[in-house]
Amino acid sequence: MDPHLARWVEEAARLFEAGGVPRMAGRALAFLLVADPPEPTAKEVAQALGVSKGALSPALGYLVRLHLVERFRRPGERADRYTMRPGAWRRILEEQARMLGRFRELAERGLALVGENPRLREVRDLYAFLEREFPLLLAKLEEG
């Protein structure tokens, strides 16, 4: 892999890791975003990242379970291939939008228990705003 691209993959992996994705899964995800061809085998991903297939396998399984990556096999081939699942990023954002409502509801229940509380009110108001506005942003994205 080109050294500049390798540095980008590592930078992206660190960002994914900061967001809660395990480091190896983040490396695999970053590589799959830029892989050419876009449907490499696990062996090809491992070679590109300089890791063993055994170290990579759980990371790829994790990404498949998150529905970010699709595992498939071409007719006549014995090796599985991996590719980014179309629409995966949008589905993740939609799930995060649902989480916004849960945080708002939690803050509301806390306010009902303790009464007026500026910290909980701030949390409730922020998540109510985000819960209301986030779907509008996704709709704008879809409009193009």
If you had to describe this structure to a student in words, what would you say it looks like?
This protein has 144 residues and is mainly alpha-helical. The protein contains 6 helices and 2 strands. α1 packs across α2, α3 packs across α4 and α5 packs antiparallel against α6. The chain starts with a helix and ends with a helix.
Task: Please summarize what this structure is.
The protein is 71% helix and 6% strand.
Summary keywords:
144 residues, mainly alpha, two-stranded antiparallel ribbon, 6 helices, 2 strands, 71% helix, elongated
What is the average per-residue confidence, as pLDDT, rounded to a whole number? Answer: 93
Structural class: mainly alpha
Helicity, in percent? over 70%
Number of helices: 6
Topology summary:
Elements: H1 3-18, H2 23-34, H3 42-49, H4 53-65, E1 69-72, E2 81-84, H5 88-114, H6 118-143
Antiparallel strand pairs: 1-2
Helix pairs in contact: 1-2, 2-3, 2-4, 3-4, 5-6
